């Protein structure tokens, strides 16, 4: 199964805290909860920063907003912690800065002021981890220099909606996490759309994201389908890579065995390759 080369589609998280009509309000509540800030919607200017890409979701960031022209916030939503996140955030924020700084200003003598960046990951996976942790770009260097280049991503563990460290001042994130828990509980890979519809009905019955899901149930189902299609693609790709690795290893062992003069029958028994595969490898060895 090959990756689908489709245009980037919003996830529920990206839509809820970005594209939706209430995305601006939801994002500000999320950022206040993550950072401990106290921004008021009617007192700030918010501008969405979208990194346009034609590749699959993994190659685009989830939510980016500029606050008052002085602060760039990038928030990622992950079910598995990717330790390359600092590098990916470096790519994202560089693309955003490229869109902010005019080309001619990059060569001017006077410094061009940049919005301060702030990076977060909202973790909703099943693996146990601390409530908060930091991922640093310098951890990827062969030798840490501690000064020349650094980027810090703050990871907030939101895997259990009841244990959220920011529940008290971020109700929208709590409801989002509760909704994802329901989706995971009722997901059926044979009938995904049916299971997503049921999850939406149950969430609304429990008063979770009621207004949002009432407005956008069809879109939410489509977003969830895209997400789970992608997860399936990744799983298949991993299995294919694993099988390819086994095949490559078996062929390497067979080549060494043939070079040592072992019979095709014995090589076949050792490696598990077919007789035709062993015969082809033996032919290649003799024709060197």
Please tell me how large the radius of gyration is. Answer: 25 Å
Question: How many alpha or pi helices?
Answer: 8
Q: Helical proportion?
A: 40-55%
Summarize the biggest pleated sheet: 6 strands, mixed
Poorly predicted segments: 1-8, 54-59, 232-242
Distance between the termini: 35 Å
In terms of DSSP E residues, the strand content is 5-15%
Structural class: alpha/beta
Instruction: Tell me the overall shape.
Output: extended
Mean of pLDDT: 82
SSE ordering? HHEEEHEEEHHHHH
Task: Compile the SSE list and pairings.
Elements: H1 12-19, H2 23-35, E1 46-48, E2 63-67, E3 71-78, H3 85-100, E4 116-123, E5 132-136, E6 152-157, H4 171-186, H5 192-205, H6 210-259, H7 264-271, H8 275-286
Please provide a written account of the structure:
The chain is α/β, with parallel strands linked by helices. The protein has helices spanning 12-19, 23-35, 85-100, 171-186, 192-205, 210-259, 264-271, 275-286; strands spanning 46-48, 63-67, 71-78, 116-123, 132-136, 152-157. A 6-stranded mixed β-sheet has the order 1-2-3-4-6-5, with helices on both faces. Strand 3, helix 3 and strand 4 form a beta-alpha-beta unit. The longest helix has 50 residues, at 210-259. The radius of gyration is 25 Å and the shape is extended. Mean pLDDT is 82; it is low at 1-8, 54-59 and 232-242.
């Amino acid at each position: 199964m090959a990756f689908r080369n489709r245009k980037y589609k919003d996830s529920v998280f990206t839509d809820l805290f970005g594209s939706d009509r209430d995305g601006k309000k939801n994002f500000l509540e999320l950022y206040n909860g993550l950072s401990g800030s106290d921004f008021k919607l009617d007192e700030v200017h918010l501008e969405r920063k979208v990194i346009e890409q034609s590749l699959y979701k993994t190659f685009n960031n989830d939510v980016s907003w500029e606050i008052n022209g002085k602060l760039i916030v990038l928030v990622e939503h992950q079910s598995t912690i990717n330790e390359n996140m600092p590098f990916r955030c470096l790519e994202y924020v560089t693309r955003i800065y490229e869109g902010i700084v005019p080309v001619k200003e990059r060569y001017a003598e006077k410094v061009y002021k940049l919005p301060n960046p702030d990076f977060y990951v909202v973790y909703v996976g099943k693996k146990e981890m601390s409530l908060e942790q930091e991922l640093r770009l310098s951890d990827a260097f062969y030798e840490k220099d501690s000064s020349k280049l650094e980027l810090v991503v703050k990871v907030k563990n939101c895997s259990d909606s009841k244990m959220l460290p920011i529940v008290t001042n971020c109700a929208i994130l709590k409801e989002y996490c509760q909704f994802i828990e329901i989706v995971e509980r009722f997901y059926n890979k044979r009938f995904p759309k049916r299971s997503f519809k049921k999850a939406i009905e149950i969430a609304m019955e429990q008063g979770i994201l009621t207004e949002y899901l009432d407005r956008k149930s069809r879109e939410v189902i489509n977003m969830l389908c895209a997400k789970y299609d992608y997860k399936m693609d990744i799983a298949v790709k991993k299995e294919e890579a694993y099988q390819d690795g086994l095949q490559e290893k078996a062929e390497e062992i067979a080549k060494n065995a043939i070079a040592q003069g072992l019979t095709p029958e014995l090589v076949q028994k050792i490696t598990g390759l077919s007789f035709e595969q062993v015969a082809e490898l033996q032919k290649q060895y003799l024709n060197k």
